[in-house]
Amino acid sequence: MSAEPTRREAALGWLVIYAKGVCMGIADAVPGVSGGTIALITGVYERLIGAITAVSPGRLRDLLSAVVPGEDRDTAWRAVAEMDLVFLVVLGTGVVTAVVTVTRLVDTALETIPVLTFGFFFGLIGASAVVLWSDVHLDTRGRIAAAVTGFVVAFVVSGQAAATFGHRPLVTFFAGMIAVSALVLPGISGSLILILIGQYEFMIGTLREAVDGVLAAALGGTVPGLGPSLVTVGTFVTGAFVGLFTTSHVVRWALSRRREATLAFLVSLIVGALRAPVADVGRRLAEANRSWTPELAGTFLAAAVVGGAVVLLVERSTSLGLDAEESETT
């Protein structure tokens, strides 16, 4: 009799973890708000980082021993527990669910209301920079140099990256590697990084094609051209998986050894990236033989205000959550 409520409580606990993953995925699908920030708000950030950093070649080898005849299964289960693998899978499933759903909406919005959508992105990005800037201290030459470098790199790359880099498989792989590092950076959005390197629109459009194709195939339909979309998504996911256990460690190392300079670089990168949404709107207007008008500029700025307000509300929630945790510990 006592075991049944325990199972229900465990199931409810994993459902809550899944829901937190969904919230992180919603944030990751749009530039500006970071999945890492949502992880902080929902109280899973430290567990997430602990689980990620616990993954090692040795533990993965122990995990694979479960499929080898004659090997000790206890070793595999111990590896599962040490890496908190069930937590990673449940949380990751929530993230993927939300990303697939939200990016479909974003893809539609980019096609139907691009000025409003990019304006909203501009507000998300700008407010993120404002929020994070309070942690930046430009009081040494090294930190100033890092800030200038971050801004220049982002400003130069923004708006030109898609034409420069293209969408070759190697670019897609490295885009996944870089974007996933945002999981360990509260305040830095993976989608923002994709916008910066000119891969955001391409990836959400490709993801939509792949999901639609898989659903159509599952229902017995024929989907020409599904293979390339699946290969692209698979390449990105592979890059993200590799980056999760490589790039994220590099970022954590940089923050632990050169925190102020790293923050100066990253926040300035966000400021420089503000060019990207404006450039994207300009490109779309040029393709339609149109140009900026006062009305379009007003629409863009109004959407930016809404986007900025969203980030400030999230930041306020983060602050309240951290204050509550501090009061409980004292």
Assembly state? single chain
Number of discrete domains: 2
Integer-rounded radius of gyration:
21 Å
- Strand percent estimate: under 5%
Overall form: globular
- Tell me about the largest β-sheet: none
How much is the average pLDDT? 82
- Spans with pLDDT under 50 lasting ≥5 residues? none
Keywords, separated by commas or semicolons:
330 residues, mainly alpha, 2 domains, 17 helices
Commentary on this structure:
The protein is globular. The protein folds into 2 domains: 1-98, no CATH class; 114-313, no CATH class. It has 17 helices and no strands. With 330 residues, it is mainly alpha-helical. The model has no long low-confidence stretch (mean pLDDT 82).
How would you summarize what this structure contains?
The chain is 80% helix and 0% strand. The chain has 330 residues and is an all-alpha fold.
Detail the topology: elements first, then pairings:
Layout lengths: L2 H26 L6 H8 L2 H10 L2 H8 L8 H10 L2 H28 L1 H20 L7 H17 L3 H5 L3 H12 L9 H7 L3 H19 L7 H19 L2 H11 L1 H14 L2 H13 L6 H36 L1
Helix pairs in contact: 1-2, 1-6, 2-17, 4-5, 6-7, 6-12, 7-15, 7-16, 7-17, 8-15, 10-11, 10-13, 12-13, 14-15
